[in-house]
From TrEMBL:
InterPro entries given in the database record: HTH-type_Bedaq_tolerance (IPR052526), HTH_MarR-typ (IPR000835), Tscrpt_reg_MarR-type_CS (IPR023187), WH-like_DNA-bd_sf (IPR036388), WH_DNA-bd_sf (IPR036390)
Domain HTH marR-type: 1-142
Domain of life: Bacteria
This protein's record includes keyword Ribonucleoprotein: no
Gene Ontology MF terms in the entry: DNA binding; DNA-binding transcription factor activity
Spans through the membrane: none
Lineage: Bacteria, Bacillati, Actinomycetota, Actinomycetes, Pseudonocardiales
Name of the protein described by the UniProt record: DNA-binding MarR family transcriptional regulator
Alphabetic keyword roster: DNA-binding, Transcription, Transcription regulation
C-alpha cells in the first residue's frame, strides 16, 4: 500500500506542478486556490464563503479576500441565500465559467503537446496505464470529496 501512496503522490505532483500549473497561473493571473474555488462553484453551485473556505482548506479571512478579488474580476458574484435571507452565497458568473473553460482548453493543449513529444511506444504505454487506473482514481476522488463534504458539514 505504501508504494501506491508514494506513486500517487509523485504522480499528482508531476501532473499538477510539472505539466500545467506554472504556465497556467502566469497566463491567467489566477492562483491554484482561485482556480480551485471557481471549479468548486462550477461543480457545486453557489456556496457560503465559510463552506468554500473549509472545502478548499483555507482560512475564512483568506477566502473572503479571495472572493473579493474574484468579484472585482467579475468571476463571482454574491447572491442571497434562499434558505437564510441574512446570509449570502458566492456564485460563479459567466465570466468565471469562461475563464475556467479557457484554462481547461489551454491545459488540454499543453498536455496534448507534451504527450505528442513522447516516443510512440511510451505514449501507448501511458494511454494503457491511464485507462486501467482511471476508474480507481475516480473512485478515490469521489471518496475524498465525500469525506471533505462530511468534514465541512460537521
Amino acid at each position: 500500500m505504501g508504494e501506491i501512496v508514494d506513486t500517487l503522490d509523485q504522480m499528482t505532483s508531476l501532473v499538477i506542478r510539472g505539466l500545467v500549473v506554472h504556465r497556467q497561473a502566469a497566463r491567467a493571473g489566477l492562483s491554484m486556490t482561485a482556480t480551485a474555488c471557481l471549479a468548486r462553484l462550477e461543480e457545486d453551485g453557489p456556496l457560503r464563503t465559510t463552506t468554500l473556505a473549509a472545502a478548499e482548506g483555507v482560512s475564512q479571512p483568506s477566502m473572503s479576500q479571495l472572493v473579493q478579488r474574484l468579484e472585482r474580476q467579475e468571476f463571482v458574484v454574491r447572491v442571497s441565500d434562499p434558505e437564510d435571507g441574512r446570509a449570502s452565497l458566492v456564485a460563479l458568473t459567466e465570466s468565471g465559467r469562461a475563464v475556467l473553460a479557457q484554462r481547461r482548453a489551454h491545459r488540454r493543449k499543453r498536455i496534448a503537446d507534451l504527450v505528442a513529444s513522447l516516443p510512440e511506444q511510451e505514449a501507448a504505454a501511458l494511454e494503457l496505464a491511464i485507462n486501467v487506473a482511471l476508474p480507481a482514481l475516480r473512485r478515490l476522488a469521489d471518496t475524498a470529496r465525500e469525506t471533505d463534504l462530511d468534514a465541512v458539514q460537521a
